[in-house]
Amino acid sequence: MTKSASKELAKKIETRLFKLLLWPVCRAYARHLGDKPADARYRFLCSLQFWRVYRFWPDLVQPRLFSEKLWSRMLHVRDPLFTLICDKLRVREYVTKKVGGECLIPLLWSGEEPKNIPFDDLPSQFVMKANHGSGYNIIVTDKTKLDQASAKRKLKKWLGENFCSDKYLGSEWGYKNIKPHITIELFIGDKDKSPADYKFYCFSGRVELLTLHVNRPEGVKSITLNRSFERYRFGPDFKQYEINYSRPANFEAMVQLAEALSEGFDFMRVDLYSTENRIYFGEFTPYPVGVSKFYSFDIASLDPILGEKWKMKGSP
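Request: output the structure for the sequence above.
Response:
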């Protein structure tokens, strides 16, 4: 076995052990805490996972770096507004009050029971979601090819989960108290291709950078841009994709919308789509990346810079 293969195997074993041993303990302790902010024990348990991901021990009480502040938010901020903006159904009301409803993707149906979905009344293309978590999506680009029974089973499974309490470290509190619903929205992509996803990182109501995600047959690829739509170039150790992209004609309008929606938050990622020169709201993401993955950008180079821009309200 080569040195590279051996290193990769060791990493996989470490990841597996953390998932099997640490994560269940973290979730159990989070359930014990209920809606209380993290105490010293829970911070310690989560810091072990932070170390595994970033390879340094964090300060989650007086955070300085962007990564530290993000995890500190997950562990300590218990603002009911986060429950509202993480709810993919109720957030529509919030967006409408904030900027108007013109940017909302048309809602075709919502309900609590998969068996009640009116498939016969739906168009040929749509997106089914569970409103109370991340990754609960079924993209339908041809209704005639949809296995309805399988889709209903998947939705039923999702509705029975608590995305906070049952996933990862139990730390993404904003999802914890959402009442599960199914939402069905119009598919806004081109033919069977999902639209480009613009993820704006907003600090105190100002866009500082964005990641552009493009969906291709071989998988989603992303690049990192500044607010002038100029690409960041990172070091050789960070894998960067080469994709064809151009600045949308309505990019400035997208920046303005992201900033308007993020107003009032010390930090918020606002996800938008642009199709046929029209801007659509995707979602608010208070916990980008979460606890088990790396960023779409080189966190090593941007961690202190974005940490400085994040003027965090209050402290644990």
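The longest helix spans residues 3-33.
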